Amino acid sequence: MLHLRAVCPPDKTAEALEVLRAHAGTAHLVVHRGAAVAPEGDLVEADIAREAADEIVGALCGLELDHTGGITLESLDTALSDAADAAEEAAPGEGADAVVWEELVARTGEESRLNVTYLAFLTIACLLAAAGVLTDSAVTIVGAMVVGPEFGPLAALAVGLVLRRRDLAGQAAAALAVGFPLAMVVTLGGALLVRVTDVFGEQAFELKQHSDVDFVFSVGVPSLVVAMLAGAAGMLAMTSAKSAALVGVFISVTTVPAAGYAVVAAVKGEWSRCLQSVGQLLVNLLGIVAAAAIVLIVRRNGQRSPMGTRPLSRG
After folding, report:
1. Which UniProt keywords apply (predicted)?
2. Which three-class secondary structure string do you get for the chain?
3. Is 300 exposed, middle or buried (0-12, 13-18, 19+ CB in 10 A)?
4. How far is CA 93 from CA 29, 52, 96, 230, in A?
5. What is the Cα–Cα distance from 312 to 315, expressed in whole angstroms?
6. Distance between CA 242 and CA 303 in Å, rounded?
7. How far is CA 40 from CA 29, 65, 108, 282, in A?
8. Could you tell me which residues come within 8 angstroms of residue 248 by beta carbon, excluding any fewer than 6 positions away?
9. Model confidence, pTM
10. CB neighbours (10 Å) of residue 305?
11. Angle between helices 221-238 and 101-111 in degrees, nearest 10
């Protein structure tokens, strides 16, 4: 179940109530007359089945409440109510299969912003990946995969392409185009410092002896297959209630490790491995976006066309 709150101008409240009353997936409808202060109006609350959310939110946006008032959604972990159970039973489909498109746009938009936090996580992930390469530690490489925040922009890019949201796609592309080069430059500085100070020893840069991390730069068809499977799983997780599966996606693909390996190989002068690592990075990025976009297209079949017109919020 989801908890919906809508701030309505007084002249729109009756229509909003009619939308909510008319849908079988609605329960616990409450109206607070004159409770909203900024913007002024009435506050309407209801618990709605997840599988009904897209249709209800679309109808409320049709009343322009997203412009004249406001609409928010919150996930409910527990709802002890016969009315809530009846609403979930009456709503068509299964909650885990439902896609709330406006929620998806908002979520991917938030996770694809180019900000200090995103850059910090991506840089730390690349540094961890480089450390894993230098120490021939697959465990450290996996740690870098988990820390890396790059799936957010990749998912946003897929959503932007499928929904034809140029603002979202542009924001995601900027995060990737700026984030990876910046993280790799910082990692390059770190790798050079390590080599000059000989912290890990000269043998750390003998990459041909590091068999445990060879998978990072070995680009090929298997890499593309893994990337596409991970992208499909990641988008399924983001469009359903199975968000815990995203952790599995993070440790499936070698985007960040490939960037870290490319930097270390460049410091050593192993240009063949450096280029292979860059190829691995590109293959994974393209594979994830392509598979995620395919999943979105498939999931959109059978549902109403998502609105996808609301500009990204900076709030």
Report:
1. Membrane, Transmembrane, Transmembrane helix
2. CEEEEEEECHHHHHHHHHHHHHCCCEEEEEEEEEEEECCEEEEEEEEECHHHHHHHHHHHHHCCHHHHCEEEEEECCCCCCHHHHHHHHHCCCCHHHCCCHHHHHHHHHHHCCCCHHHHHHHHHHHHHHHHHHHCCCHHHHHHHHHHCCCHHHHHHHHHHHHCCCHHHHHHHHHHHHHHHHHHHHHHHHHHHHHHHHCCCCHHHHCHHHCHHHHHHCCCCHHHHHHHHHHHHHHHHHHCCCCHHHHHHHHCCCCHHHHHHHHHHHHHHCCHHHHHHHHHHHHHHHHHHHHHHHHHHHHHHCCCCCCCCCCCCCCC
3. middle
4. 22, 9, 9, 25
5. 9
6. 19
7. 20, 12, 30, 50
8. 233
9. 0.80
10. 9
11. 120
**Which residue do the tokens 């994830």 mark?**
288
Length of the chain in residues, anyone? Answer: 315
Per-residue pLDDT of the chain (315 residues; tens, 9 = 90+): 899 999 999 999 999 999 999 988 899 999 999 999 988 999 999 999 888 888 899 899 999 998 999 999 888 878 888 998 888 888 776 656 677 788 888 888 888 999 999 999 999 999 999 998 888 888 888 888 888 899 899 999 999 999 889 999 999 999 999 999 999 999 999 999 988 888 877 777 777 666 667 777 777 788 889 889 988 888 888 887 665 556 656 666 778 989 998 999 898 888 988 999 999 899 999 999 999 999 989 887 755 544 445 556 554
Q: Looking at the DSSP assignment, which residues form a beta bridge with residue 30?
A: 45
Q: Rounded to whole angstroms, what are the CA distances from 157 to 55, 87, 166?
A: 24, 34, 9
